[in-house]
Amino acid sequence: MSLVLLATLLSCQPKQKMASDTIRVVTTTGMIYDAVLRIGGDKVTAQALMGPGVDPHLYKATQGDLQKLQAADIVFYNGLHLEGKMGEVFEKLSRIKNVEAIAAHLPDSLLRESETYAGTFDPHIWFDVSLWAQAISSVGTYLATYDEDNASYYQANTQAYLSQLDSLDQAVKTAIHSIPDQQRILITAHDAFGYFGDAYGIEVRGLQGLSTLSEPGLKDIADLVNMISQDQIKAVFVETSVSKKAINAVVEGCHQKGHQVVIGGSLYSDAMGPFGQFEGTYIGMVHTNVQTIVNALK
Questions:
Q1: Does residue 280 carry a pLDDT above 50?
Q2: In whole angstroms, what separates CA 156 from the centre of its chain?
Q3: SS (H, E, C) the chain
Q4: Residue 95: HSE in the Cβ half-sphere, 13 Å Cα cutoff
Q5: What's the confidence (pLDDT) of residue 45?
Q6: Burial of residue 43 (number of CB atoms within 10 Å: 0-12, 13-18, 19+)
Q7: What pLDDT was estimated at residue 214?
Q8: Whole-angstrom distance, CA of residue 297 vs CA of residue 291
Q9: Pseudo-torsion of CA 62, 240, 160, 169, nearest 10°?
Q10: Per-domain boundaries in the chain
């Protein structure tokens, strides 16, 4: 977002509860958008800046985003540098708008520290369903504080949704544990699935790091090819929001070494599927990913 756009935003009226039929909420990612819909129900009107297939690491705000942020009563974003430079914008915007980073209330002890940048953490918290449940609880708390007259409504919706997420968490554990131990290795385009690996007992390797800002080098590709070929890994996975070029290079490298690894499917990583479809919900995204992983590795 340019300095001109930011200056325009900062000239908005001070934050206050608006007298309207519904609370106007803007989110960055689809995962947060879905949580707002589940918790806010018919009390909110929500929009997501980043739709299906959009990589939040590389996202740049548009003029249309400016208009959405200007009109919003509340803005929810992930935090932990997931949204790149937009995080700085949201911090400044919080001076005059109701802005909440949902990861801000998670204790550092539950977060995966970056191996590359000291003091920073892996932002892909939605891949551990139980951790995501803790994060999106802040949505319910924030809405209940903002709209006190309907606090009990948001609290009830939050508890109902958290119950669904608890069931989902248990289902993911059961499904992943059905994969034989020696085949429980998940290789993806970038290192987005670390929380998933820690929570559900599957080894995870990403070709790129936590962010997709930098391209993998030839050595990164060669090292992964050697590992896959040596361990006779059956399948690797592409991601809907990340270029397939690097993973295709890994598959080709394995074939040249005589190991016929396959692409096991496409996973939703930093973006969900199309809104309005099962994969366009958080629960649907997780379910679809797990089925894809199990079918390819089991």
A1: yes
A2: 24
A3: CCHHHHHHHHCCCCCCCCCCCCEEEEECCHHHHHHHHHHHHHHEEEEECCCCCCCHHHCCCCHHHHHHHHHCCEEEECCCCCCCCHHHHHHHHCCCCEEEEHHHHCCHHHCCECCCCCCCECCCHHHCHHHHHHHHHHHHHHHHHHCHHHHHHHHHHHHHHHHHHHHHHHHHHHHHHCCCHHHCEEEEEECCCHHHHHHHCCEEEEEECCCCCCCCCHHHHHHHHHHHHHHCCCEEEEECCCCCHHHHHHHHHHHHCCCCCEEEEEECCCCCCCCCCHHHCHHHHHHHHHHHHHHHHC
A4: 11
A5: 97
A6: middle
A7: 60
A8: 10
A9: -140
A10: 179-297
Residue 255 sits at the vertex; the CA angle it makes with 253 and 256, to the nearest 5 degrees, is 65
Task: Kindly give the interhelix angle for 30-40 and 151-177, rounded to the nearest 10 degrees.
Answer: 130
Q: Are 175 and 202 in contact (CB under 8 A)?
A: no
Residues 6+ apart with CB under 8 A from 129: 165, 168, 169, 172, 199, 286
Residues composing the chain:
298
CA distance 190 to 39: 30
Q: Report the pLDDT value the prediction gives residue 109, as an integer from 0 to 100.
A: 96
Instruction: Write the class of the CATH domain 179-297.
Output: alpha beta
Amino acid, single-letter form, for residue 156: A
* Residue 208's pLDDT band (cuts 50, 70, 90): confident
pLDDT tens digits, 85-130: 888 889 889 999 999 999 999 999 999 998 777 789 999 999 999 9
What does the alpha-carbon distance between residue 134 and residue 130 come to, in Å, rounded to a whole number? 7
Unique residue bearing structure tokens 């001070």: 14
Is the distance from CB of 102 to CB of 136 less than 8 angstroms?
Answer: yes
